[in-house]
Design goal:
By secondary structure, the protein is of the alpha/beta class. Helix content is 45%, strand content 17%.
């Protein structure tokens, strides 16, 4: 508890500590509450019942496995982050609290100041393949070992597939945007950013749909991690859970979804230790996400020459060359 108090004190002006939810003072209305759940599963529910509905919750869960983290995140609608106790260092918790309660939004919040961030725009399957190849090249140039590069590429592939294909389908199925808006957004690229800073590699992906549904994601994800035969996004995210250290989603419904994965390059085995989902409701942040997701627009792809057309063109050129040769011979 002393470590958590130090972490919160580094990010907030006032910190209230309680050993039991019932010890919280009456009228206590923090913007953010950290719940160290331990082995008592009912602790989170009791703390949530004691706090006002606008208080966001972070659960610290001891030596938790990915399935426990995902289930804890889904246990309370106000839960925004669940993480293993090994991740709850003062510096990490302070940074997390500032991201959740501070001003601004966007991928830049995650990257250390001064880091040289690489970016790409992905609008098609071919773009995705090229982006992942470039990402792996940059990771190799940053002296990242092969097993971590493979994990980064695996996460990038899964998250980009969701952004490129699952997000537009979910938006259309949910009827959150009209056909005209869908047609316009289909021309927009998915934004990708990445950087290595110290012993951490950051990968961020943003789409312009905002179609992520918190309960559906966490439900299918938990089912896949539990071996329930879940397919689609749940199965893809279970792959991500075995290849990165943390994954955070921020969604402004109907506007944009951001996904940030981090990779702790000191770990012998990469496995999910922190997961977060935030549904943005602040108008200023939503407007910022709307502006960020509005650009750039993917240029139209030129029509490719089909193999049959290319073959016909080659034959025509050969015949023309033969005809010219015949004319030259006849003139002699």
């Amino acid at each position: 508890m002393s470590l958590l108090r130090a972490a919160m004190a580094a990010a907030a002006d006032q910190v209230v500590e309680a050993s039991e939810p019932e010890e919280l003072p009456a009228g206590c209305a923090p913007a953010l509450a950290v719940v160290a759940a331990g082995d008592d599963e009912g602790w989170i529910a009791r703390a949530a019942a004691r706090l006002p509905v606008q208080t966001a919750l972070i659960a610290v869960l001891g030596d938790a496995q990915p399935l426990e983290l995902v289930r804890a995140l889904g246990a309370q609608p106000r839960m925004v982050v669940a993480l293993a106790a090994s991740r709850a260092t003062p510096s990490a918790m302070a940074a997390l609290a500032r991201r959740l309660t501070g001003d601004g939004t966007g991928l830049a919040r995650w990257f250390p100041a001064g880091a040289v961030v690489q970016t790409a725009e992905v609008g098609s399957y071919a773009d995705k393949v090229a982006c992942i190849a470039r990402l792996q090249q940059d990771a190799e140039a940053s002296m990242i070992r092969g097993k971590y590069r493979d994990a980064i590429a695996e996460c990038a592939d899964e998250v980009l597939m969701n952004a490129l294909y699952a997000a537009p389908r979910a938006a259309a199925a949910g009827a959150r945007v009209g056909k005209q808006a869908i047609a316009e957004r289909a021309a927009r690229s998915v934004s990708v950013a990445w950087v290595r800073a110290g012993d951490t590699f950051y990968l961020a992906v943003r789409d312009s749909w905002g179609s992520l549904r918190r309960d559906a994601l966490l439900g299918s994800w938990a089912g896949a991690l539990a071996g329930g035969g879940e397919a689609g996004a749940g199965l893809g995210m279970s792959i991500v859970a075995g290849a990165c250290t943390s994954v955070h989603f921020t969604c402004a419904p109907g506007v944009a979804t951001e996904c940030v994965c981090t990779f702790d390059l000191r770990q012998t085995k990469l496995q999910l230790q922190e997961v977060g989902v935030t549904i943005e409701s602040d108008p200023a942040r939503i407007d910022e996400l709307r502006r960020a997701a509005a650009v750039p627009v993917r240029p139209p792809v030129a029509a490719a020459t089909t193999p049959g057309a290319a073959r016909a063109l080659v034959i025509a050129l050969v015949l023309l060359a033969l005809l010219l040769l015949l004319v030259l011979l006849l003139r002699r």
